[in-house]
Write a structure and sequence with these properties.
Layout (H helix, E strand, L loop, with lengths): L1 H26 L45 E5 L3 E6 L4 E11 L12 E3 L9 E8 L13 E2 L3 E3 L6 E9 L4 E10 L4 E10 L5 E11 L7 H6 L8 E6 L3 E6 L9 E5 L2 E5 L3 E6 L5 E9 L7 E13 L4 E12 L22 H18 L2 H15 L1 H16 L1 H11 L3 H14 L8 H20 L23 H15 L8 H18 L4 H34 L1
Parallel strand pairs: 1-7
Antiparallel strand pairs: 1-2, 2-3, 3-4, 5-11, 6-8, 8-9, 9-10, 10-19, 11-18, 12-13, 12-15, 14-17, 15-16, 16-19, 17-18
Length: about 575
């Protein structure tokens, strides 16, 4: 009975977790239509009184008043990133992650194109923008027209970094040089906006950085269930030393807009496996805000912004405004070295305290085995060994209850439909035989958070993306193409069910148990094979443990009977 309750508990909690996640995505509250603030046109930063000395421009161009001139696209590339920069605003409008193919490598397609994160495609629009604003002079915002002296800058052999400069100048004498720099084997883009004030008056203004993104594409119900990316967080997030990481779903942009002054934080846009984050200087007091651009249109865009402190440049002087931009994978264990709290973009939530050490352990096992599938198997065995005492007590209680099935069945026949007397008689029988039907509760309470934490790790780990196992499984982040693992899991669950005590079980519960193996077999047919591998190995080891315990209990019972 205990083992039955355990399986039912895990099954129901798992189904509830998946259904709740999908319901939030499909039927969660949508942002209501709202008017675009007058001072924020197309994501344009304006005066922010929460920043000391901040000043908004008096001559913010409207949506249709972008400076004249023809823009062009230029590229900046190191060995891991290829960036496409639009000279209109100097915005990064495309980013290709050269080490991460967009699809698994196969014989038919041995060289798939690299994964693209930032994208200027209208339906998948995602851009990293930055600029300057001023209320007493000219300043290039993210719509100003810059000039690039070269159309391509690529990291050469032997070089440690590569830079690309874009320049803007005003007849008043103010000149701005925007420099993007990439270092070797680095996903961080260094931004330096140099303000050279050649005018006759002191220039004052603010620098800002922002991320602007279109909402996720709508998918049909089948893809929403079978695509692991649909169950991962897709939205914005921000970090402060006081509040730590705070996710900001797109559904909260209207009802809970972001507005915080932060020192030592960052803002980001997150998706499955990858994210982009603007990281202002750690010693600057920066205001983080959010807004919806064109909320009444068919394709609204969501924007998060970091608005910096006041900058003053005297005539003939030069001042630099710097920031960093991370564009890349959620490589756990390495991101905090870039900025405090950046590891939290994995967004494990309350499971962080469990999921983080599990991910570390999984990585260590991969370092030993050289295969992520083998690492998953080893992780299962280690967890089973660590929880052996708990599960041993649970399984032994189930084995003893199994031995009592004939007597429980006799009580059922004796009392018929009188459930109260039946329950009283069963409790007396359990007490006499020193069997505790609730012995399995503590193991469930301890192992369930571990299970959910590992579920998050296997679902979110970039290392498993397109990682091969053996034989027919070429991608642990994709479903088993031949459904071998789901079938194996179905057989393991079926055999486990056969070993469970069923006497005295509620009829509805008994019927549910009969169809549970088939339901979960079909359920897992569309899950990532790495996750199904974990479930199958975990179920198989539990089955072996239960068989061994049942065998030892049977021997002990037989020995006591013949003594």
């Amino acid at each position: 009975m205990n083992q039955t309750r355990t399986l039912l508990f895990f099954a129901l909690m798992f189904v509830a977790y998946v259904l709740w996640t999908q319901w939030e995505q499909d039927y969660g509250p949508k942002p209501p239509a709202q008017a675009t603030p007058a001072a924020q046109v197309d994501g344009k930063p304006a005066a922010d009184s929460s920043v000391p000395g901040a000043a908004g421009p008096a001559n913010v161009p409207s949506d249709t008043a972008a400076p004249a001139g023809k823009a062009e696209l230029v590229t900046l590339q190191n060995d891991v990133l290829r960036l496409t920069i639009d000279t209109r605003g100097g915005s990064i409008v495309r980013s290709e992650l050269l080490y991460y193919p967009s699809a698994p490598v196969t014989r038919k397609d041995p060289t798939p194109p690299p994964a693209r994160l930032l994208d200027d495609n209208a339906t998948m629009f995602f851009a990293a923008q930055d600029g300057l604003v001023s209320n007493n002079g000219a300043a290039p915002d993210h719509r100003a027209l810059f000039h690039a002296e070269k159309t391509e800058a690529k990291l050469a052999d032997g070089e440690k970094s590569v830079s690309l400069d874009l320049t803007w100048s005003d007849p008043s004498g103010v000149k701005v040089t925007k420099r993007y720099t990439l270092k070797r084997m680095d996903y961080v883009v260094d931004l330096d906006q140099r303000i050279d004030n050649g005018s006759q008056a002191t220039w004052s203004g603010n620098a800002y950085q922002q991320l602007q993104r279109a909402p996720a594409e709508k998918v049909n119900w089948f893809k929403s269930y079978t695509d692991p990316a649909q169950h991962s967080f897709f939205g914005a997030g921000w970090y402060s030393p006081e509040s730590k990481f705070e996710p900001l779903p797109f559904t909260d942009f209207a009802k809970k807009p972001l507005s915080h002054a932060v020192t030592g934080g960052w803002i980001s846009m997150l998706q499955h496996y990858f994210f982009v984050a603007w990281i202002p200087p750690a010693d600057q007091n920066v205001t983080y805000t959010s807004t919806i651009v064109d909320p009444n249109s068919a394709t609204p865009r969501y924007l998060v912004r970091a608005f910096g402190p006041a900058i003053q440049v005297a005539p003939g002087q030069v001042s630099d405004s710097v920031a960093r931009l991370y564009i890349g994978p959620k490589l756990q264990g390495t991101l905090d070295a870039i900025a405090p709290g950046l590891d939290l973009t994995a967004n494990y939530g309350w499971l962080t305290i469990i999921a983080t050490p599990l991910h570390w352990l999984l990585s260590q096992l991969h370092a030993i085995s050289g295969n992520w599938g083998v690492a998953i198997i080893l992780l299962v065995l280690l967890i089973k060994a660590a929880l052996f005492k708990l599960t041993d007590a649970q399984f032994r209680s189930g084995a003893r209850m199994r031995k009592l099935q004939p007597r429980v069945q006799a009580l059922k026949e004796r009392y018929g439909d009188d459930r109260m007397k039946m329950q009283q008689a069963m409790m007396e029988l359990y007490k006499k035989e020193k069997v505790n039907p609730m012995a399995g509760c503590l193991p469930i309470l301890i192992t369930f958070p571990i299970f959910i934490g590992l579920l998050r790790v296997l679902s979110e780990s970039i290392e498993l993306r397109h990682a091969p196992f053996f034989g027919w499984i070429h991608d642990l982040s994709a479903p088993d193409p031949f459904y071998v693992l789901p079938v194996l899991y179905f057989l393991v669950t079926l055999l486990t069910q056969r070993m469970m005590p069923t006497a005295g079980m509620d009829p509805t519960q008994a019927k549910m148990m009969k169809v549970m193996p088939l339901i979960f077999g079909v359920f897992f047919a569309f899950f990532p094979s790495g996750l199904v591998l974990y479930w199958t190995v975990n179920g198989a080891t539990s089955l072996l443990q239960q068989w061994w315990i049942n065998r030892s209990v049977d021997k002990a019972h037989e020995k006591a009977r013949t003594a």
